[in-house]
Every structure is written in structure tokens, then in C-alpha cells.
Design brief:
Blueprint lengths: L9 H6 L10 H6 L2 H18 L4 H7 L4 H8 L3 E3 L5 E3 L7 E7 L2 E7 L2 H20 L12 E3 L5 E3 L4 H9 L15
Antiparallel strand pairs: 1-2, 3-4, 5-6
Helix pairs in contact: 3-4, 3-5
């Protein structure tokens, strides 16, 4: 018995303007080429910029992508207005693979909730502020916060100051990117 082909063929994806099959799991994400991982990460960045009020063409240009690529890959995160312009939905379920600083150390997790990705970004900013200035006030709001991954597993965010200082002096905390592939 033949298996039914999952998803669209390469020819069908190209016809729809998709450079690759949209990843729905971490495994699918990591099976993409590094270039396609970068494109996929940029889709999430563009949608985030659009939430800040940047237009689709400007945000796409900032990340070196065509607006059509963002529409095709990130359609579920966008809403088309009556005037034909696209705006980002308040929240989305685009897969994002992010570096999270948890009690066990740095870990790459996949999340399908833009709010979780924003929480991770806020946590990294608070950690960076603490490491650079010694001011732990921004970290206080992350005490007892957990990140939920795409499989609904919960990870407590690291807020222990001594452990953060230890990781920073060991060179584990670099801030090139909170997204997978960065800060290695």
C-alpha cells in the first residue's frame, strides 16, 4: 500500500511561491538548510516588526525578503485589511526555535506561540541588562515564569543571580541572537 504524500510537492510549493515547506516542528525546522532556517527566522522577525507598526514592505526589506515571501510563509500570522494592506495579528502560531536560558542552562526549544517567543526575548534583555549593569530589577518579573514549548513542556526561566554571573564569566551568555543558530 502506498503512503499518501504529506504536504505539497516541490513543484506545487514553487507554484504557490513557497521556497520550502513551512516547518511545524523542531525536527522539520532543523531539516531545513541553514539558508532556509534563516529565511524562516526572518519571517518571524518581520511579523514582530509589523506588530510594532512597521509596514510589511519596510519590515520585509529590513530582513532582505520580498513581501510575497512573508505573505506566503507567514500568512497565518497576517490579516489582510480592506485596503489590501497586510497587518500582523496580535498573536500567532508560527514555529519559532529560540534559545532559552533555563535552570539547566541554555537550551534550544521550539514554540508555536508568539507570546512565548516575546517572553524569551524579554528575559534575554533582562539578563543582558543584569550582566552589563548589575541591575537585577528587570529580572524580577521573570521569577517563577515558565516557557511552554510546542509540545506543551514547561521550562522555568533562569533568574538566579549567582548562576547568571557564573554563566556570564564562563562565556556561556552571548547575545548575538536568541534564535536558534545564533550565539553559539
Amino acid at each position: 500500500m502506498k503512503k499518501k504524500h504529506q504536504g505539497r510537492s516541490k513543484r506545487q510549493r514553487k507554484a504557490k511561491g513557497l521556497p520550502f515547506k513551512k516547518p511545524n516542528t523542531a525536527r522539520q525546522y532543523f531539516s531545513l538548510s541553514p539558508k532556509n532556517q534563516e529565511i524562516w527566522d526572518s519571517v518571524g522577525h518581520v511579523v514582530s516588526k509589523m506588530r510594532e507598526g512597521v509596514t510589511l514592505p519596510k519590515a520585509a526589506k529590513e530582513f532582505g525578503l520580498a513581501p510575497e515571501t512573508i505573505i506566503n510563509l507567514g500568512r497565518s500570522a497576517l490579516r489582510k485589511q480592506k485596503n489590501g494592506r497586510y497587518v500582523a495579528k496580535k498573536i500567532d502560531q508560527l514555529l519559532r526555535v529560540v534559545n532559552v536560558l533555563i535552570t539547566e542552562g541554555r537550551k534550544e526549544i521550539a514554540t508555536r506561540d508568539s507570546r512565548q517567543a516575546s517572553l524569551v526575548g524579554g528575559h534575554w534583555a533582562a539578563v543582558q541588562k543584569f550582566i552589563q549593569t548589575g541591575d537585577d530589577s528587570a529580572l524580577l518579573k521573570f521569577a517563577k515564569k515558565r516557557i511552554v514549548d510546542a509540545r506543551r513542556k514547561r521550562y522555568p526561566l533562569l533568574t538566579d543571580l549567582k548562576e547568571l554571573e557564573r554563566l556570564a564569566s564562563a562565556g556561556v551568555l552571548r547575545f548575538e541572537s536568541m534564535y536558534a543558530g545564533g550565539a553559539r
